[in-house]
Specification:
The chain is an alpha+beta fold. 37% of the residues lie in helices and 20% in strands. It comes from Maribellus luteus.
């Protein structure tokens, strides 16, 4: 059985592996096998008696938890099984917190640690009382606009005739007459006074990020931003195509309005509000929206492209947006973006994790099929070829339809200095997405190999022609 999210193999014991125990305890639990290699093959432990005494003591004394430590035997080979149960309280090792994510151990710091500790306490960031705020910090006009928006749906409870405080209580945005952070983000008069990174910044770029032509900074609560950002994009940043059917003038946006709205909603609802502002970059051929805050530990990008469960980072903000009809709670936001682009004849949007957040990009090029026409492929190939160095070109010429290790590639290239190979050849080809890892979840695996991507094959084909 290979290593996975709740299984870890170690050939021998080292006290540093207490971090793995901590990571499992803070996640969904798991098992650590001492005396097995990466493939699960048993390696006999000579000192198993000593380890059976010391490991339980070290776990209890260092982490303050207990684990089942069992001696196992197979064909006269002894190995140890450590069963770690998940804990509802945070577990630390010398003041440091670790979490098992996928098949890797991650140390939690900064924003991630703050969210983790809140989650263990049964709260999210927006569920905390904002001691600096009073009812006077809530904008009545924003509440009125919110109620008006909610009329089209049937999700908002009856709020007619309620005071501002009573209205917020209906949405669970106050506690003991004290304002929560979620109330400020949704309806605050000046949310930036409490959380400086709450703004949305829009920039118009031409060729690259260095070529900024103009930009705007929009500040306000979510109800305001939902309307104003879309309005500003349509008024100043995006071009509307005009066609006539008889005497009827029809305007069509560059990108589906539904996709833009869902992108903005996802960025505002699921972002980290103690981080930096939401960024919207508009180029000649694409538009991208980025918000700080990665995916939950139990999710990955591929899950967003299909039907998935909704895991809101800000639970109360998400619930308030749901009651207004802005979002649903079925995890369909990304599917709406993808499907609306497909319906409009645009390429499939790109969704990636980058710079500690999520970035969604819409492309203005035609349909998916059009992307692979000879003309478009040739244009893409020319753009990438301009960035290919001689070293990268030599590397690609060594790779056929097979998988190669570092040593094999260095041997074919005749390069003996490993750092030179890694920096000048391998990493640059990876950055250009011309090659890819066979084991992307374990970049430093001893069994790691590399192969051509589709883009790499296109580049090589263009050289042959």
């Amino acid at each position: 059985m290979p290593e996975k999210q709740n299984i870890e193999y170690k050939q021998s014991w080292h006290d540093d592996y207490l971090k793995w125990v901590c990571g499992f305890a803070n996640a969904v639990g798991g098992k650590i096998y001492i005396g097995k290699d990466d493939d699960g093959n048993i390696i006999h432990l000579e000192n198993y008696r000593k380890l059976m005494e010391s490991i339980p003591q070290k776990i209890r004394n260092t982490l303050g938890i207990t684990c089942d430590v069992n001696l196992q035997e197979d064909e006269d080979k002894k190995y140890i099984e450590i069963i770690v149960n998940p804990y509802s309280v945070p577990v630390s090792i010398r003041g440091r917190y670790y979490y098992r994510s996928g098949s890797t151990k991650t140390e939690l710091t900064g924003i991630e640690l703050n969210e983790f500790l809140l989650k263990k306490a049964g709260k999210t960031w927006d569920d905390v009382i904002e001691e600096r705020a009073t009812i006077d910090d809530i904008d009545a006009n924003s509440i009125a606009k919110y109620i008006e928006d909610a009329k089209d749906g049937d999700r908002l409870p009856d709020v007619e005739g309620l005071s501002i405080l009573q209205f917020l209580e209906k949405l669970r945005l106050v506690e003991n007459n004290k304002i929560k952070r979620s109330a400020i983000v949704m309806f605050g008069k000046d949310p930036g006074r409490f959380y400086p990174g709450i703004s949305v910044r829009i920039g118009r770029f031409v060729n690259d990020d260095a070529d900024l032509r103009f930009h705007d900074v929009l500040e306000g609560n979510i109800v305001y931003l939902l309307k104003e950002v879309i309005k500003q994009l349509g008024y100043k940043y995006l071009v509307k195509q005009i066609e006539f059917r008889g005497i009827l003038r029809i305007e069509k946006g560059e990108y589906p309005l539904e996709a833009l709205r869902e992108m903005l909603l996802n960025a505002l609802v699921h972002r980290t509000y103690i981080g930096v502002h939401v960024q919207i970059r508009v180029y000649n051929d694409k538009i991208m929206i980025w918000n700080e805050g990665g995916l939950p530990y139990d999710m990955d990008i591929e899950m967003l492209k299909g039907v998935h469960t909704s895991y809101p980072r800000n639970r109360l903000i998400a619930d308030a947006c749901f009651k207004a009809g802005y979002i649903d709670t079925w995890g369909r936001g990304t599917l709406k973006i993808i499907n609306s682009c497909k319906k409009a004849g645009l390429p499939t949007p790109e969704i990636i994790e980058t710079a500690g957040g999520i970035q969604v990009t819409l492309f203005k090029v035609g349909s998916d099929e059009e992307l692979h026409t000879p003309q478009v492929t040739e244009q893409v190939t020319e753009q990438v070829t301009e960035q290919v160095t001689e070293q990268v070109k030599k590397l690609l010429q060594c790779i056929e339809e097979e998988e190669y290790s570092n040593a094999e590639l260095m041997n074919q290239l005749g390069v003996k200095h490993r750092p030179t190979f890694l920096y000048n050849y391998l990493q640059k080809a990876l950055d250009l997405k011309l090659i890819e890892m066979t084991i992307p979840d374990k970049p430093k695996s001893s069994k790691q190999k590399y192969r051509l991507t589709e883009k790499g094959r296109q580049i090589k084909e263009s050289w042959r022609k």
